[in-house]
Amino acid sequence: MNTKQIQYVMTIWECGSFSQASNKLFISQPSLSQYIINLEKELGVTLFDRRTSPLQLTDAGRIYVRYANQILDCYKQMEQDIRDLSNTAPSHITIGAPPYFTMYFMAPIISEFKRKWTNISISLKELPNEQRQQAAIKGEIDLFFTTRPIDDARIEYRHILTEHILLALPPTHRLVSPEAPQYQEEVAIPALRLRDYREAALQFENDFPSISLSEMRDDSFVMPRSEGTLRQSVIKLCSQLGFEPKIVLETKSIDITCAMVLEGIGIAFVPETAIRFINSRKHPIYYRIKENNLTRNLYTGYAKASHHLSCIRDEFINVSVGVLKSSGYKFD
After folding, report:
1. What would the DSSP string read from start to end of 261-316?
2. CA atoms of 57 and 4, how far apart (whole Å)
3. Measured between alpha carbons, how far is 34 from 31 in angstroms, rounded to an integer?
4. Which of 69, 245, 289, 300 would be a feasible disulfide site paired with 221, CB 3.0-4.6 Å?
5. What digits encode the pLDDT tens for the residues 275-294?
6. pTM of this prediction?
């Protein structure tokens, strides 16, 4: 198939006759008829039932038209994607993300994306999870990030990474050893920040010691305010261990959570990615949980029906993955 063949066949089918199609295509009727005859010989089938008026498609003709429409859609999408990335036609992409993702990750991601695609402008929308996904379906955002994908056939999700969840204790906690703060600041956190995510699973246990969550049943907890996957996972794990966490404070950001832990207000759970990206000179003391290797998945999502800016969207996803998994990003 080529576009000229498709154009001729589709025009004949739309017009219902060779004569009307030849006028529309600015080609003589005999030439058009001979072209279709040659095409039918090449395919070994007839595409039109010439006994009817207007012309009808044969079974083979209907198959041809069905695939021809798909090919035309691909051509249109290809042309749109090329226009989107053309230096002469600046484009725009709107990203939806939770506040924590915007705070910790968006600056390096956007910086790297803009370095490659200077002509594309970006808007950020901080929305609750359900609103991000509905906004994508409505075409209000082109791409979003989430840790809680919703089962909706209209949304396409891509897994970006799986991160560890660590327990954060104040340096003065009864279970923190005297040498822990110095080791963490000089060894563990620098190693975590400089390491590629793909290596994390191999060496993560060497960086942070483990501790039993069962020993924390009498401690106070600082928890995320939202009912996200992190909070749900923590409450579920505590329940499995036979206790309900005593929540003394709810926070909206990981920065605030870590500050509260440092002041001894409570203990908390912190995602590995936040430790990698958080811009702070002081940290709580982080531990792995003995009873369960808590993890959380990060996904990108977008509306399946939306082909607008699909090439740019894919590029933004690729850049995001590259930044999050790269050991070359300078955190300090």
Report:
1. HHTTS-BEEEEHHHHHH---S---EEEEESS---EEEEEEEEETT--TTHHHHHHH
2. 18
3. 5
4. 245
5. 877 767 788 999 999 888 78
6. 0.64
